[in-house]
Task: structure prediction
Amino acid sequence: RDLISTDIRILPRTAQSIRLESLGFPPHIRSEIEQAAGFSSGLILVCGPTSSGKSTTIAGCFAAHADRFGETRRRISIEDPIERLLPGVIQINVPTHLDADKRCQLIEAAVKRHDPDAIFVGEIRDRPSGGLAVSAAISGHLVFSTVHATNTILGYHAVTNFVPQDRRA
Result:
């Protein structure tokens, strides 16, 4: 017998900033997140189970980045699908009709054309997305991404398993 599962996520289609202070982080944690959002390069991962607020936290990071740098920095997101509209962010919906390697090659080329300072890779869930996130981070971009993991140690291991050997620093 075949079982079918359906998940519907209803999110607002209006472009609005997510404020980190509205997400309930303790002040010292919020301060650390805001500081990280001000870095010029690196990879910032948000780990957690499905529907735990990972992408919402990244949206808050992008708002903190915008607060700090305003229009002097370019922000881009690469998502499958785009979950919420983010003001001031160029958002790319991942084409699903191509295989994963071709999708990431196409996206990498599109990202380079936009020359972003901050990049949101919607989720690291396979080798192409892991390679894209790490490649962008080690080439001087600030990259935010999510990974499904119950803690940061497992998140780190998941990402290292998804990153091709030739893209590891």
Notes: Residues 54-69 form the longest helix (16 residues).
